[in-house]
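I have a small job for you when you get a moment. Would you make up a two-line entry for one protein for me to read? No commentary is needed, just the two lines. Write everything out right here, beneath this request.
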Amino acid sequence: MATQPITGLFQSLSSDIAAVVERAGQAVVRVDARPRFAASGIVWTADGLILTADHVVQREENIMVALADGRELEARLAGRDPGTDLALLRVDATGLPAAEFGQAQDLGVGQLVLALGRPRTDGIQATIGVVSALGGPWQTWRGGRVEGFIQTDVTMYPGFSGGPLVNAAGQVVGLNSSALARGISLAIPAETLGRVGEALKTRGRVRRGYLGVGVQPVPLPASLTGKLGLAQETGLLVLNVEPGGPAERGGLILGDIIVGLAGQVVRDMEDLQRGLAGDVVGTETAVKVVRGGELRDLTMTVGERE
């Protein structure tokens, strides 16, 4: 029997996937910044800025980047943020093929995505899967705030960390990291890449605020929340106050229960950390506490965590 040519949907899909890999792969680079295994990176700007995963940058000198066109360039570390597992490299080059970024918030569970990597010098590598879960803002175990998470079933081969997660349009919707979760494929969303990347470009780090307190979540009695008009069931009990810290200077004392920060409800540590993220360092911030069964409004200047 004569072999029939492959036609139809499968062939079209296969060709489309290959075309996306070829196009998006031009912005994927090899990052050699650790012993033994190289990793991947994404050309963020045409003038030489490259995003990668922080955990793959194990040395801050003698970093080499290999571009899709075969050129190998020495890179400098422009900044890093272990909290979100992101690092920014700079190479002395212009006219680089910068990635096209999409919005992770436009993804849907079940959509096809591609993970790309260039850990070797013999070309781009790719693996395909679906978005298996999406979530809202979260705090990494390293202490960084991430706008959301993208969980997929793509296979994270060695060296894929720092490379892009790509949607069907060939847009980068996330950066793949094997360091933020065990046993699952996770990508840092494009929204976080933009925010953290700008901070690293400007300051070389992400500024994180602190109040100088030790706290723990405690339940608030229904009788108290009803009396005070609070729409929450928990707050943060202040267990210790750092001498000379922002909280002490702002009048916070042991036994206070923090229930609000900068106009937002504080129920737990995640709420507090979220309120201290962003450009709040050095700003006067309103803190609402329960003291002696009454609400009190304090003002304190947020410090910067070293």
